[in-house]
């Protein structure tokens, strides 16, 4: 575990302990179980966002994708009698297709990720609303899909939410992919220095595109889990701002928006911190309208503190390395004679 | 007789371990045009920085209008009327010409609102444009100006600061002949108005045309000054070179083999009209010399698949090959050590080991998972083989010295199976010790049968290490030199386009 992750973990424990002291209900199994469920739902797509951020990009359409794919999912199994397994496959494939379109627009047409995914945010939200004619999509009375429901909203031993278990399984897989595989190394390399990666023979366009595909796929899985959790979807608001949760979690977890940095553990801890904060607002009787303000303030303070620590370390390092640096720079200033 | 405008007396600049300027003295009078020539690293840019107040000299005196200045600051230099036209133009291409000239000094109106008075701005710039005979309007966006026009705009900027001395650093390096002519007449005009000009260049023809006097720098010293009548090509080149070649180069131990890489009719985007034919033989080091901007790097990038080519083909050991990305080139055993190692060669924040294994990561993996043990062992082998001085292979590359960073770039490729290695400025910005190690390595590689194409602007290096030299001038090959024809004079002649 990195120092940064450790810091985040300590912050979570401190905030958690403070909330628990003020309102012991925080530690009630039911509350913890609910929070864990939320962590599971948000963590699924936050991991996808992290992949994109590590390439130096951004994916803003996650919330709209969750609305659109969730709406279609419910429509497929409720109104079109598609078997839920087939529907899951269709939705995940759909998420991957959307992601690959983003990736191709960014790598082949050289559009900026922000612009491409901002358009996605608008387009998917609009389609979702049109698709249901702005009505709420949901399960009819008495309709049930026991296996699907157990897998998504069930609780192992009646307490551990299966969404959390799904998140852990996916996190382990994605963690291995990101931190242990050749692909993951390429992803970091492209995020750090795309030119150098290209000069080393890495297919940079393919790597960047794949990050958006992974993000789309995970957003689709999250869309299914969230749809099953809410059981009804108002496409105008369902999943709105979720992309910002995802970005916040990734950044809290140590992803740099410049690319090339981040870890799965960090993202998971970021998601946990955000959910604990949400819980804090609820349990401490802070007006829920302040919800976003509290989260924003905590993230800002966290980022400032982190920056200060980095600066402090750098200054210490510079002081140590000054002699060495002086020698190196003088060497570069005076090169040997050349024909220019 | 008016006294000199600027006098430099015994100016020295000593960096730890290196003397960049060694008791440099010269003076420039009002309305005088001085050509400052010398090879790269001769101290031209340090001297420029001293005159601009950017760098404080370690010793010596600067006099402006006869008044001694202990430490010349940038503001003082500007106030004294010293202006620069830099090689990399410092213009904002999202603004128009007039705004660029008065950037930071805009005429304002509207009191606290501080609105820019565009009318007055243009009115102030127009006479300056007229004075230089410039053919664009003050409100032309800089993005629409040609390179020559931008250069002129820089001069306008200098004039707007009431410059009495304009120092131009390689002003013609990107100009066409007609544009150069224009600049020459602008310089004559400046001279007529009593403005002094210091003209730094490697284009000796131009110096001969416009300079009243030429000052030649070498290894931080003024090695000679030529008055108008004495300025000739040969005299300048003799002064610029004037040193013995040091024997740090190993001679080849084998006769070059068959043609390994053949470049046939290759055209790049920079010089679309020029088709290049070149063959590198197995076991030889082919030096590719030429001026900066002569198209050498573009050629290398095209062969390695970074840039698209406009035509032409490649053959490897006689077999036609197609390369459309670095991936293709690497698969064929054609590797490139890029000119800018920080931008194109390294992942600075990553470890030595991950940098070395990057192009060959699949070899150091099992079921597509990175085998860190194999990766580290490989990096350790390369570290020892190339004598990379790093505390460990897990050290971040950013903390290494330039020479060791370059060795990491080399190690990437040496760990694989090179057939053709293209080096673009292999020893730029690295110390002598590491240089020698790299030269030795180049020779060993060639002796093992690798074909080496070495782009270098370092004359000593090109002559010392190459088995053959090919010289490029404005996108075409201007000549081949065999070992017995090697001399700085011959290379220089071909590089400036003299056949």
Give an overview in words.
The complex is a heterodimer of chains A (340) and B (499). Chain A has a domain at 40-261. Mean pLDDT of chain A is 88; it is low at 322-340. Chain A is mostly helical and 340 residues long. In chain A, α2 packs antiparallel against α10 (204-230), α7 packs across α8 (182-192) and α8 (182-192) packs across α10 (204-230). Chain A has helices at residues 3-22, 29-54, 62-79, 84-107, 113-131, 146-153, 162-179, 182-192, 194-199, 204-230, 242-252, 264-283, 291-333, and strands at 137-138, 155-156, 160-161, 232-233. By secondary structure, chain B is α/β, with parallel strands linked by helices. Chain B folds into two domains: 6-241, Rossmann fold (3-Layer(aba) Sandwich), CATH 3.40.50.300; 259-495, P-loop containing nucleotide triphosphate hydrolases (Rossmann fold, 3-Layer(aba) Sandwich), CATH 3.40.50. In chain B, a hairpin with a 2-residue loop joins β1 and β2 (18-28). The radius of gyration of chain B is 25 Å and the shape is globular. The model of chain B has no long low-confidence stretch (mean pLDDT 86).
């Amino acid at each position: 575990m990195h120092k940064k992750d450790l810091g985040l973990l300590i912050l979570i424990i401190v905030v958690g302990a403070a909330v628990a002291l003020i309102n012991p209900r925080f530690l009630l199994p039911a509350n913890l179980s609910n929070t864990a469920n939320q962590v599971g739902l948000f963590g699924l797509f936050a991991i996808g966002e992290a992949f994109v951020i590590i390439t130096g990009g951004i994916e803003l359409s996650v919330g709209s994708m969750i609305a659109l794919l969730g709406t279609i999912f419910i429509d497929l199994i409720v109104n079109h009698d598609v078997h839920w397994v087939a529907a899951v496959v269709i939705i995940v494939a759909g998420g991957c297709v959307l992601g690959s379109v983003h990736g191709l627009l960014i790598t082949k047409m050289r559009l900026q990720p922000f612009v491409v995914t901002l358009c996605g945010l608008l387009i998917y939200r609009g389609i979702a609303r049109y698709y249901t004619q702005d009505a709420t999509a949901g399960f009819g009375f008495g309709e049930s899909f026991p296996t699907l429901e157990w897998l998504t909203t069930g609780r192992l031993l009646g307490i551990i939410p299966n969404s959390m278990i799904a998140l852990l399984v996916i996190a382990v897989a994605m963690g291995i992919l990101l931190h242990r595989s050749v692909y993951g190394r390429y992803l970091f390399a492209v995020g750090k220095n795309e030119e150098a990666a290209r000069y080393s023979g890495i297919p940079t366009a393919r790597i960047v595109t794949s990050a958006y595909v992974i993000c789309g796929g995970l957003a689709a899985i999250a869309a299914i889990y969230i749809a099953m959790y809410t059981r009804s979807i108002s496409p105008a608001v369902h999943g709105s701002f979720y992309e910002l949760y995802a970005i916040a979690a990734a950044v809290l977890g140590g992803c740099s928006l410049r690319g090339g940095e981040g870890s799965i553990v960090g993202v998971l801890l970021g998601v946990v911190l955000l959910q604990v904060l949400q819980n804090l607002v609820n349990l401490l009787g802070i007006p829920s309208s302040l919800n976003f303000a509290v989260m924003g303030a905590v993230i800002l303070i966290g980022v400032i503190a982190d920056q200060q620590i980095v600066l402090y370390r750098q200054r210490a390092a510079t002081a140590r390395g000054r002699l060495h640096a002086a020698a190196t720079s003088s060497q570069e200033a005076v090169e040997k004679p050349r024909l220019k | 007789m008016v006294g000199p405008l600027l006098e430099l007396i015994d100016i020295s600049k000593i960096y730890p371990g290196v003397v960049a300027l060694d008791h440099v003295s010269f003076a420039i009078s009002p309305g005088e045009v001085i050509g400052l020539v010398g090879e790269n690293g001769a101290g031209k840019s340090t001297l420029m920085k001293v005159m601009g107040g950017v760098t404080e000299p370690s010793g010596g005196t600067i006099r402006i209008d006869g008044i001694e200045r202990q430490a010349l600051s940038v503001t003082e230099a500007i106030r004294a009327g010293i202006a620069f036209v830099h090689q990399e133009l410092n213009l904002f291409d999202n603004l128009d010409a007039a705004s660029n000239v008065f950037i930071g000094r805009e005429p304002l109106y509207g009191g606290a609102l501080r609105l820019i008075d565009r009318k007055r701005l243009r009115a102030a710039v127009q006479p300056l444009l007229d004075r230089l005979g410039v053919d664009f309007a003050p409100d032309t966006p800089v993005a629409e100006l040609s390179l020559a026009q931008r250069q002129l705009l820089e001069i306008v900027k200098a004039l707007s600061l009431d410059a009495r001395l304009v120092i131009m650093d390689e002003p013609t390096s990107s100009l066409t002949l007609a544009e150069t002519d224009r600049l020459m007449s602008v310089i004559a005009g400046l001279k007529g108005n009593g403005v002094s000009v210091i003209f730094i260049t490697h284009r000796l023809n131009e110096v001969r045309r416009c300079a009243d006097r030429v000052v030649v720098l070498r290894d931080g010293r003024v090695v000679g000054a030529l008055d108008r009548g004495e300025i000739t090509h040969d005299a300048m080149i003799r002064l610029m070179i004037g040193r013995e070649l040091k024997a740090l180069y190993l001679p080849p131990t084998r006769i070059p083999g068959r043609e390994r890489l053949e470049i046939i009719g290759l055209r790049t985007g920079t010089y679309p009209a020029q088709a290049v034919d070149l063959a590198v033989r197995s076991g030889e080091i082919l030096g590719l010399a030429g001026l900066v901007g002569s198209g050498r790097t573009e050629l290398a990038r095209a062969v390695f698949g970074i840039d698209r080519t406009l035509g032409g083909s490649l053959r490897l050991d006689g077999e036609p090959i197609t390369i459309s990305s670095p991936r293709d080139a690497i698969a064929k055993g054609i590797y490139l050590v890029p000119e800018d190692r920080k931008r194109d060669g390294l992942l600075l924040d990553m470890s030595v080991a991950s940098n070395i294994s990057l192009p060959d990561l699949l070899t150091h993996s099992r079921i597509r998972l990175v085998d860190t043990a194999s990766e580290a062992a490989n990096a350790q082998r390369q570290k020892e083989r190339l004598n990379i001085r790093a505390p460990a292979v897990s050290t971040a590359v950013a903390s290494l010295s330039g020479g060791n960073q370059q060795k990491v770039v080399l190690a990437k490729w040496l760990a694989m199976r090179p057939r053709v290695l293209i080096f673009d400025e292999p020893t730029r910005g690295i110390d002598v010790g590491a240089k020698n190690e790299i030269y030795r390595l180049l020779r060993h590689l060639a002796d093992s049968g690798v074909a080496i194409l070495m782009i270098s602007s370092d004359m000593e290096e090109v002559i010392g290490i190459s088995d053959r030299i090919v010289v490029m001038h404005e996108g075409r090959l201007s000549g081949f030199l065999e070992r017995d024809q090697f001399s700085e004079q011959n290379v220089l002649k071909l590089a400036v386009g003299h056949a």
